[in-house]
Write a structure and sequence with these properties.
The longest helix has 18 residues. By secondary structure, the protein is of the alpha/beta class. It is 37% helix and 20% strand. The strands form four sheets. It has a five-stranded parallel beta sheet. Strands 1-12-13-14 form a four-stranded mixed beta sheet. A four-stranded parallel beta sheet has the order 8-7-9-10, with helices on one face. It folds into two domains: 199 residues, 3-Layer(aba) Sandwich (Rossmann fold); 122 residues, Rossmann fold.
Length: 383
């Protein structure tokens, strides 16, 4: 029997500085931890706007959002904000944003935190992360790669502060027929490393040796063969048929450029990457014909951005769609259970459908059903 997909009802919430004047058991009070001051205050404001937009269909006077400023990377300010919310009988909080702040949040065992962080899909004590996790992305990509009948995949990622975490996650997933390749994000070093990965020097030498066989011959067949070889840059195949590049922005573009420079055949090797939040700058990386990646629902993402812009005359930070869904998830749990006592109240048997797409809770993990998109002629197309 197919699992029923539950559609979350979203309600519009407007902030009120006097929210706490009428406390009663029927109220759902939700805290928001956000950087409302400092260099990331625009993100904090965007988070608040997203919550105003989140529940736009029904006006529920019993639901309140209580925002508190955490600054950025300020543990003292974070703890002060949580303690203030706790003193006002807040039992559930959207935040913190950063995984580094989880250790502080764990100290408040009687409060549930719904974080947009994507570092871990597992329930961590009193914290649920609803970000688009690497595990969900890799699961979607691996299933896609298998359907394309590829069986020699290289998972590529840079040498940076996340390298150990990625290795740890890959080890947990027990992948087969996959190998990893760590590269230096410095473009001047990167190209040389990718030349080694693709055996570029030997393939270049293979071509030169092959051409010498026909250079001194004047028969028609040799001339035709030499003409074909002159159209090539290398001779011979690479020892993989697909790549997963765990990278973003200019660093991702440098990897793609280096793979094309070393003459990796795009007709034979499948190019994939992780969620790019529909970054249109990838269109200008015109060396790649098709790039595939898993992501949230594009139509819902566009609709969210459009509605947000119409209301606030500015575009949202992409992660705010996660807090939009987090509020709907909290409200659904509250209405279904009558109250929210612990994170176990979020262990629904059925799937949940939000703006980001469909997700479920299994084995105390958040699992997202992501769609595969590809870039094609300056468009994002669902594959």
């Amino acid at each position: 029997m197919k699992k029923i997909i539950i559609i979350i009802s979203y309600l519009l919430i407007f902030f009120n500085s006097n929210l706490l004047s009428n406390e009663n058991d029927k109220d759902l009070k939700i805290g928001l931890l956000a950087p409302l001051s400092g260099e990331y205050k625009e993100l904090g404001n965007s988070l608040m706007y997203s919550l105003q937009l989140a529940l736009s269909e029904i006006d529920d006077e019993n639901v309140f959002i209580i925002p508190r400023d955490t600054g950025y990377n300020d543990k003292e300010k974070l703890n002060t904000a949580i303690q203030d919310l706790k003193s006002q009988d807040v039992k559930i909080i959207i935040g913190p944003l950063n995984f580094d702040d989880f250790e502080e949040a764990k100290k408040y065992k009687d409060i549930i935190f719904i974080s947009p962080s994507n570092i871990t899909p597992e329930f961590k004590d009193n914290i649920i992360s609803v970000g688009v996790s690497l595990e969900s992305q890799l699961t979607s990509l691996i299933n896609f790669i298998k359907k394309q009948k590829k069986n020699k995949t290289v998972i590529m990622f840079p040498k940076n502060q996340y390298e150990g975490l990625i290795n740890q996650k890959l080890k947990k997933m027990n992948l087969e027929n996959y190998r990893t390749f760590n590269y230096n994000p410095n473009p001047e070093v990167l190209t040389g490393e990718i030349e080694i990965l693709t055996n570029y020097s030997q393939r270049k030498k293979n071509l030169e040796l092959r051409k010498k066989l026909f250079e001194d011959k004047e028969d028609e067949q040799s001339i035709r063969e030499l003409g074909k070889l002159d159209q090539l840059y290398t001779l011979g195949e690479v020892n993989f048929d697909s790549v997963i590049i765990i990278d973003f922005g200019s660093s991702l573009k440098s990897v793609l450029t280096s793979l094309v420079y070393t003459d990796v055949n795009q007709d034979k090797v499948l190019f994939t990457t992780v969620n790019q939040w529909f970054d249109e700058s990838i269109f200008y990386e015109n060396t790649i014909r098709n790039l595939f990646y898993p992501s949230i629902d594009y139509k819902e993402f566009k609709k969210y951005n459009k509605n947000y812009f119409q209301k606030f005359q500015t575009y949202p930070n992409e992660i705010t769609i996660l807090t939009y869904d987090a509020l709907g998830l909290i409200y659904y749990a509250w209405k279904k259970k009558g109250k929210i006592a612990s994170i176990n109240d979020f262990l629904f048997k059925n799937k949940i459908k939000g703006k980001i797409g469909t997700f479920s809770f299994k084995d105390r993990k958040v699992i997202q059903d992501l769609k595969i998109y590809k870039t094609d002629k300056n468009k994002f197309i669902k594959f």
